[in-house]
Amino acid sequence: QRVFPYISAMVNNGSLTYDHSKDGRWTELAGCTADLRNQNHDTFLAIRYSRGRLTVMTDVEDKNEWKNCIDIAGVQLPTGYFFGASAGTGDLSDNHDIISMKLFQLMVEHPLEDETVDWTKIEPSVSLLKSPKDNVDDPTGNFRSGPLTGWKVFLLLLCALLGIIVCAVVGAVVFQKRQERNKRFY
């Protein structure tokens, strides 16, 4: 169960949309509850992306202690993009005053194979999950791989047509039986 306010993370390569009616549940990688609302002190959120690991930590109790919220390994993000913040998720939205955003470039040692990668051209992804392009939203909350193929669509339509024919025959038989029963009483 989610308790709001809720912080969630998703990685998107442009093929996914945020489902406002379900608060992004189907595209969420991880999340946590953070009691940010109506505090008499400043609340803080720290987002760190380093060496393929995305972590989000909060300090909402005014104790100068960071609590882990999200920790996802295997995240690949390109460089050259922008940061944004939103409190809107659907019908519910909230007011937040963002006092500041501080961005730092971390100086970490990278393996030699990372030196040849053009980080501006990589596609956003998470290596432990399927590619966002492969995930198709399913109303049951599960993900199925890829769209329906030609044979699957044909079989689905054939079954639907057979079902309609069976319903029509049963309906006609029932209707005829009622007509015969009604004729006997005249």
TrEMBL record:
Pfam families: Lectin_leg-like (PF03388). Residues 1-106 form the L-type lectin-like domain. The gene is Lman2. The keyword Endoplasmic reticulum does not apply. One of its GO terms (cellular component) is endoplasmic reticulum membrane. It comes from Balaeniceps rex. GO terms for biological process: endoplasmic reticulum to Golgi vesicle-mediated transport. This is LMAN2 protein. SUPFAM superfamilies: Concanavalin A-like lectins/glucanases (SSF49899). It is a single-pass type I membrane protein.
